[in-house]
Fold this protein.
Amino acid sequence: MSLSLLLLLVCSAKATNFLGTVITYYPKNTHTDGSMTVVLPYKTNYLSCPDVPTCFSGGCTNKVYNESTGEWCQTEGIITWQVPNNALFQLMLGDTAWISNIVNNIVRASAVTLVDLRNRSDTGRANSSPQTTVLPAVRVPSNCQRDFKLLAFDPDGDEVKCRYGDDALSECNPCTPASVLTLSSPCSLSFSPTNSSSEGPYAVQLYMEDFPRQAISLTHTNGSQTMITTNNTISKIPVQFVVRVDPVVPSCTEGLYLPKFLPPTPVHRAVYYTPINQTLEIIIKAQANISMISELLFSGPYNVNQTTSGGGQFTLRWTPSGNQDGESHPICFVVQAILK
């Protein structure tokens, strides 16, 4: 598949500071001259965020979310571009260094987003990428079995699959997978108990892709068409973060040392619909009998607000704005606990 336009996004961060990224895209307006407006929401994660907004061609960060203990921070922004037509193009992120002491020996960061804005025969509109978000760092005790089921939603109804980055495609630098994790279809990572020598941070460098559920055609601005089948990916987005393997805990049973979610917490991959300018409330409750619930960590749209009610109860509130109309926005969260 040839690319008719190549764009380069360079992100220079502090040395040994990077904790991953997620970059998605949404097509917006098609103009009379055939050009298109596309927005690319992005999240970049660090040990400590820059003191000034990080700006790329087309946008700057508009939110910085700091984890309360200083373990990580996440910046979020939106790049807005007007491209001359709906040809494929790539967005590349690089020239920054991961945190030090990554166990799977990842040093330099590299991430690629493949944007395909061609008109789909099944929906009659331009393709949108899969939508997801992740926390910069996820913790797991070394003696506990854990599954990480990533959020994976596609606005066009496509099938979403995940894979490791490929060195041959320059998708990471290098693409060495974390030995303590197993990737299964479609987008789940499994961790099995290991020994103390495997403790430490691992870089996870995945790519999320969308596949049509039936054969479709994609139409270029100039009228040319490309047929794709259910075996062909349309777009791809990077999903990069850190998994920290921690020392053992006395028990892996949820609700003792490790927090356990309670109703009315939404189930995994729950879907909510809300009109613009109307506030959506998500109530989250958790308990841990032996440890103490300390905080809620979340990643979501830049205008999500959090309040704490005590007793392991939290509320997330989001009021979608007019420029978010018609979009899908993922939110993921975890509850953290400390020993009493």
Residues 251-340 form a domain with the Immunoglobulin-like fold (CATH 2.60.40). Residues 1-15 have pLDDT under 50 and may be disordered.
